[in-house]
Amino acid sequence: MTHEEIVQKLPYGPPFLFVDRITEVSQKHIKGEYMFKDTCDFYKGHFVNFPVTPGVILIECMMQIGLVSLGIYLLRDKNFDLKSTATVAVVEHQARFLKPVFPNENVTVVSDLEYFRFHKLKSQVKMLNAAGEVVCQGVFSGILKPGDAKS
Amino acid sequence: MNQEIYSKLKDIIKPYLPEDVNPESIEPQSHLVNDLNINSTHLVDIVLDVEDAFDITIEDDELNKMDTVAASIALIDEKLATR
Fold first, then answer.
1. φ/ψ (deg, to 5) at A114
2. Which stretches of chain B sit within 8 Å of chain A by CB?
3. Residues of A with a known catalytic role
């Protein structure tokens, strides 16, 4: 599976797709990038006169690259379509925010798999800014289940 | 029923109980999901903790065998015997 195929299989679309590209992937880790364009709607209100990327959006970006994209890769041999018959759900996250991310900043997300068993994927995820500084890190987990959407 | 497994299993389950479920209410016949209100993702955590605590491996298709406390003990017992 190519890096582009992983992004194409993601069940997100604008304005809620926070993955530009995947740059590395293996059975144990994934790395990807995203640029928060200054045209994003939420910058108008977060905050008024002081646009900063909301923490929840950073977490979403970390989940899309660190959990969902990695899960898509790990399940590459199973024929499934997250856009129709599969389930994706966040389970928990423990995140620590260290630095702000401003409009037009490029970030890199790195995720190291802890386990993917019984459809639950748990990973240590880090987001770094262009200077290589960690802006957010945490332990994230979610459910990724191919096949019938009912659990 | 193996009492040693029972007490170890209870200790594993306790941290995953919702706040409104009293740990004292765990009984052999308790259904993990229906009686103890453990959600399915915590069930995965319990299985992983069980694997570590007893040094056994539970296969993906065996998760549904662990529906009650007693059934889980039976599965653990079986795994320990064939280890």
1. -95, -50
2. 40-41, 43-44, 47-48, 60, 63
3. 46
